[in-house]
Design brief:
Length: about 525
């Protein structure tokens, strides 16, 4: 066989495969806009990979990319799909391939195209209709593949034998141009459709529409207003109550699930006397309570911003569990999310006097989709991964020695009370401030215990006690500030440590977040001029 034709044939097959993959994902993504994120194949494929990825791979990527980790995952999934399309396509070898090879490639392409269909149908809460866009995309992709490989019919083994004649060569060139044009147009159309369909934000707005329709009742018990004295009044410090827009978001979903409140229910089952199921109507009819609670992520690095405070509206989980009657032998509640995530919370933390809530509101509005709409758990004193299940659908009363949760299966601890922590917010790292008095401010938290004191140290000086703003509750963070007089020009370091009301001093020992939160003192460098 002529080597040039062989290579060109492979390239044609590959181009046809890539164009087919682009058309598949493009058409499916566009159609999926009508049905919502669960029907989008690229999003679902990426989503399917998340729980399978080893933490050793996930963590460096998240560290490196921060909030861009999700678009990055979608992009990688898309590129991998194109590469696979190209690889399978190259088996067909375009014009020089036999019909048998083209059939084999078509078969493999069909099998590969059925993977996103299966991923879509296997998602929790999937409806058969969700598979339609991916199936339509697959059919269109296959048509494009066959069309492209058939677009140079004049070629084939017969032509190859006489390729030396000039007339044949000219026909071959025209044929190649036609192929390139057609492949280019189809690939561009597919890419444009992917771009249009990938407006994940517009898909997420489907959930947003349900949020605006949900009307929350007036709380039966309002939270006291946050006093002005809860602020340490340091310009540039983080506000006491976090705007939901600025509230950190941590979860394992690429797009928050779009849950209609009328379709939502919470089932309390497992080791209980009687199973209880509540609809959203049932929940909204309960006397709801408002509480200010600071939520914290176990993977927050020292000085990081995976912590926030909101005024949550909800119903005490204690009372919900009381209706079900947990067994004496139970010691854990495994909360399940709509998306399959689970968290293991000590039963005691949900039945003691703390304000563990089934929350439906955040800062006076329904929960935003990315923070758990229509309902989530908020448990003071425990890191989010063992307590704060968003899109919660089930409370399974069980035992720690019988069931494990999502992150426990990936190397994190089953139980994780929040450790005392503090951070410097002003001055900003590497800021330049003018000589003289230097104002320092920040936040400290030790939910369930409360902050007793905060100490700050300039360079290698003594620890000096900061002034604490008023405590709102022991379950909220506490602002602090202090001033250093006559700081010399030059480079300086500030270090902070907090002590909780049990007398635990924040340790200076540095450790990684996994399996149970980073520790160490936060320090920053700044310049005086
Ligand atoms: N369904 C679901 N709920 C979840 C998670 C998740 O991945 N899926 N992440 C948990 C973690 S690790 C934290 S820290 C909190 C974060 O809540 P937020 O995103 O509203 O700040 O949600 C918790 N609830
Ligand atoms: Mo977390």
């Amino acid at each position: 066989m002529n080597r040039r034709h062989h290579v060109e044939g492979r390239a044609r097959g590959a181009a046809a495969g890539i164009a087919a993959a682009l058309v598949l994902f493009g058409a499916a993504d566009l159609l999926a806009r009508a049905l919502g994120p669960p029907a989008a194949p690229l999003l679902t494929l990426g989503q399917t990979l998340i729980p399978l990825a080893p933490p050793a791979v996930v963590e460096p990527v998240i560290d490196l990319l921060g909030r861009n980790d999700k678009p990055f995952l979608i992009a990688c999934t898309g590129l991998a799909a194109l590469a696979l399309g190209g690889l399978i396509g190259s088996l067909a070898r375009g014009g020089t391939g036999s019909a048998r090879r083209t059939r084999l490639a078509t078969l493999l392409l069909t099998a590969a195209g059925l993977v996103p269909v299966a991923a879509i149908l296997l998602q929790p809460g999937a409806r058969p209709a969700d598979a339609v866009p991916a199936l339509v995309g697959l059919v269109l992709g296959l048509i494009v593949f066959r069309l492209l490989l058939g677009s140079h019919r004049p070629g084939g083994p017969a032509r190859e034998a006489h390729a030396s004649s000039t007339g044949e060569a000219a026909a071959g060139q025209a044929d190649r141009r036609q192929f390139i044009r057609l492949a280019g147009v189809l690939a561009a159309a597919g890419a444009a459709a992917v771009a249009a369909g990938q407006t994940v934000a517009s898909l997420a707005q489907d959930a947003g529409a349900a949020v605006t329709r949900l009307v929350l009742p007036e709380p039966a018990r309002k939270a006291p207003a946050i006093p002005a004295s809860a602020s340490a009044n340091v310009a540039g410090a983080v506000p006491f109550v976090t705007d939901p827009e600025d509230f950190y978001r941590i979860d394992t979903v690429l797009a928050p699930p779009a849950i209609e409140p009328v379709e939502w229910s919470l089932r309390i089952h497992g080791m209980v006397e009687n199973e209880v199921t509540l609809t959203m109507e049932d929940v909204l009819d309960l006397p709801l309570e408002e509480h200010h609670i600071t939520l914290t992520c176990v993977s927050n690095p020292v000085g990081g911003d995976l912590v926030g405070t909101a005024t949550w509206l909800g119903f005490p989980v204690r009372e919900l569990l009381g209706r079900a009657g947990p067994s004496q032998d139970a010691d854990m509640v495994l909360s399940h999310s709509f998306d399959g995530f689970t968290a293991s919370t000590p039963l005691a933390a949900l039945t003691d006097e703390r304000d563990a809530l089934l929350a439906v509101g955040m800062n006076g509005a329904p929960l935003p989709p990315e923070h758990g709409f229509p309902a989530r758990l908020v448990v003071p004193g425990l890191y989010g991964f063992v307590s704060a299940t968003k899109w919660v659908t089930e409370l399974e009363v069980t035992r720690f020695d019988e069931k494990t949760a999502y992150w426990t299966d990936r190397g994190w601890d089953a139980q994780a009370p929040i450790l005392v922590a503090s951070r410097i917010e002003v001055p900003k790292p590497l800021a330049t401030v003018s000589a003289g008095n230097v104002r320092v401010g920040g936040t400290a938290w030790a939910q369930r215990s409360g902050i007793e004191s905060v100490e700050v140290r300039l360079d290698d000086g003594d620890w000096t006690e900061a002034a604490l703003a008023e405590e709102v509750t022991i379950d909220t963070w506490r602002q602090w500030r202090t001033d250093f007089a006559e700081v010399e020009p030059g480079s300086h370091t500030l270090t902070v440590r907090a002590t909780d009301k049990d007398g635990t001093v924040q340790t200076a020992k540095r450790r990684d977040p996994i399996p149970n939160s980073a520790t160490g003192h936060h320090h920053i460098q700044f310049r005086v001029e």
